[in-house]
Amino acid sequence: MAEIRVTLPDGIVLACDIVGDAGAPVVLPILGITDNMTDWPVAFARPFVEAGFRVIRFELRDMGRSSACEDRPPYDMNDVADDVLALIRHLGLGRVDVIGYSYGGAIGQRLALKAPAEVRSLTCLQSTTYRPGLPGRSEAVMAAMTAACADYPDEQGRIAAIRSLRLATGGRLHFMSETEAEESARRSVARAYVPAGTARLVTSRQISAPIHDDLPRIACPVLVLQGEDDPIFPLGHGEDIANRIPGARLLHLAGAGHNHPRSLRDRMLGPILGFLKTL
Length: 279
Hints:
Blueprint: E1 4-7, E2 13-19, E3 26-30, H1 42-50, E4 54-58, H2 77-90, E5 96-101, H3 103-114, E6 119-125, H4 139-148, H5 155-168, H6 178-191, H7 195-207, E7 222-227, H8 237-244, E8 249-253, H9 265-277
Helix pairs in contact: 2-3, 4-5, 5-6
C-alpha cells in the first residue's frame, strides 16, 4: 500500500494510496477540512475491500501531504472539485462511488453535478448544502475550529488543538474518550498538521456560491447520513440535501456527532455498504 503522488494538470499534487485489488470497483472517500488519510484509516477501508471494492484514499489540496497553496491565488470549492475529477481521470478510475464526509460531502455534490459520467453514487456523510439559513454551529465547535487554524510552536500544542476538536464534535452516544481523541490527534499530527491550509479551505467554502438550487439535477443514487447530535451540521443539514436530490435516501445516525469514534464505525459503514450493494 505505497503512497502515490499524483500531479494534476494545474500543478497541484495530491497524495493518495490504494487499498484493495486492481480492477475492483472504486470507493472514493472525500474528507473534510483538517483531515488527512489518518481520518479514513485502513480499518474504514477494509470492509469495502472485503465486499469487493478498492478504496482510493487521498488528501485534498492544502491537507496532509498534498500541495500547500500559500503561493497560489485564492480558490473556491469548484477548484477543489476539479482536483478530484482530475484525480479520477488521471488514475483511470472510471465510475466511482463517492463517500463525501463533511466539507467533502459538499465537494461530492459539486462533483456529481460536474461529472455525472464519473460518479456512480454519492454518499453524503455528516454533510451539508451550505445553504444560508441552515442551523448554526455550537460556540464550542466554533472555538475548536478556530484553534485548529492556528499554528503552534511545538507538537504538543498541535496535538492539543486537534484533540480539542475531536472532543468538541462528539454526540450523546458516540463520542471519543480523552484517550481515543488523544490517539487520533497524535496520528493526525504525526502525518501532517496544516493549520494555514485548514484556514484556506475554510475560505474556499466562504467564497463559494451556494449550489443548493442545482442539486435536483443530481441523477446518481444518493445516500445521506445525518448525525442526530452533530454540532457542526445539526439536524436540518442532511435533510436539506435529501430533500433537494430526487430519490435520495436519508438515514439518521442516533446519538452521533460529527466525528467517527470506534463505537460508531459499524453503524456508519454498514449502511453505506448496504447502499452500495443495491446499486
